[in-house]
Amino acid sequence: MARPRILVVGAGFAGVECVRRLERRLTPGEAEITLVTPFSYQLYLPLLPQVAAGVLTPQSVAVSLRRSRRHRTRIVPGGAIGVDTDAKVCVVRKITDEIVNEPYDYIVLAAGSVTRTFDIPGLVEHARGMKTLAEAAYIRDHVIAQLDLADASQDEEERASRLQFVVVGGGYAGTETAACLQRLTTSALRHYPRLDPKLIKWHLIDIAPKLMPELGDKLGRDAMKILRRRGIEVSLGVSIAEATAERVTFTDGRVLPCRTLIWTAGVAASPLIATLGAETVRGRLAVTPELSLRGSDGVFALGDAAAVPDLAKGDGAVCPPTAQHALRQGRTVADNLIASLRGTPLARYEHKDLGLVVDLGGRDAVSKPLGIELKGLPAQAVARGYHWSALRTNVAKTRVMTNWMLNAIAGDDFVRTGFQLRSPATLKDFEYTDTYLTPEQVREHTAATVIRH
């Protein structure tokens, strides 16, 4: 008898945790496990701002999927572009652009999220994101290039535009990105004696009235003070009205000469979710407390792609798209898959949030572990300790700790790799959000495949 086929889509926190638990708890004869992902690594997303700032190397936060001693999962190098839940087929575009079908008995949709954008003139053409390893590496090169070009320029207007940087998004990603990159440019100044320090200006803006509201009023104000003390101009209740290659217009009417616009204003569920034609909650797939899709046999969804009921909060709340929830949901889905195979009851997902950590670089941080408000060095110790312990392999932990120590002792480096030197490298160039099929196209594709066979 053929083994049941378990197909996991996505190698983020949720997908990898699910696969690893299945590998540990299922015998090889119980199921065949397949993972669909463009890259054979798990990206530790919360540390991307430190990669952009050069504190960590890209390899440090890209944790290999093949290092596990129990590794037996077949990895399909590509991205899922459609799912037909009736035919039980997932349509995959490989990294070679070849389109293949992956049949399944059980599917785990852990496709994650993409950068959320709006219909703002020039945004997708001129903004950079902070959602992928390639984007973080590119932004580092780009920021250092602006310093090099400004230093070499004899044109005062060009210098001014190259030395103004705008980050949109007052959540964790945007705040940490602005803070870490501002430290990089400040540290770089001693190597650029021709540059006037007053010309380097960082702007952090958000349409919301508060910075990182999840932290609470006091820590939010503390974070604001830290940023402003370091010279970062924080503007709340403001967004972008228009962006061009050389300037950014704010919704309050200000026009800034600027060659660097970093967009971190939230995330949206992967476009894969729309291909199912199923019920969604604000774009995320509506699932039961057991993380299964109602009315579809063998379909589970979790992480950023799913609106998982938050039973710890109640009142119809859904779990926020955080690594903390994704990891635990991955374990719950793995256990429920095993229960489905063995004919035992499924478990409901419930987890009380353990708190938040925000690393602002250097000795600056704000954290709220278990509701305890911290700032400064204690907060930094908690933030880095949490991230370090969450890394999945000892190799990754060693690399990250070594990078932190080296940066603390030797300081920052200002080397450009030349990554995508002559490419636009904007939002649309990294996340490939235009490759997905519509629900109708998915069904037409699977029906045509069945007829041919």
From TrEMBL:
Residues 5-330 form the FAD/NAD(P)-binding domain. It comes from the Bacteria. Its EC number is 1.6.99.3. It holds the Pfam family Pyr_redox_2. The keyword NAD applies. Gene3D superfamilies: 3.50.50.100. Keywords: FAD, Flavoprotein, NAD, Oxidoreductase. GO terms for molecular function: NADH dehydrogenase activity. InterPro entries: FAD/NAD-bd_sf, FAD/NAD-binding_dom, NDH-2. Belongs to the NADH dehydrogenase family. This is NADH dehydrogenase. It comes from Streptomyces fulvorobeus. The lineage of its organism: Bacteria, Bacillati, Actinomycetota, Actinomycetes, Kitasatosporales.
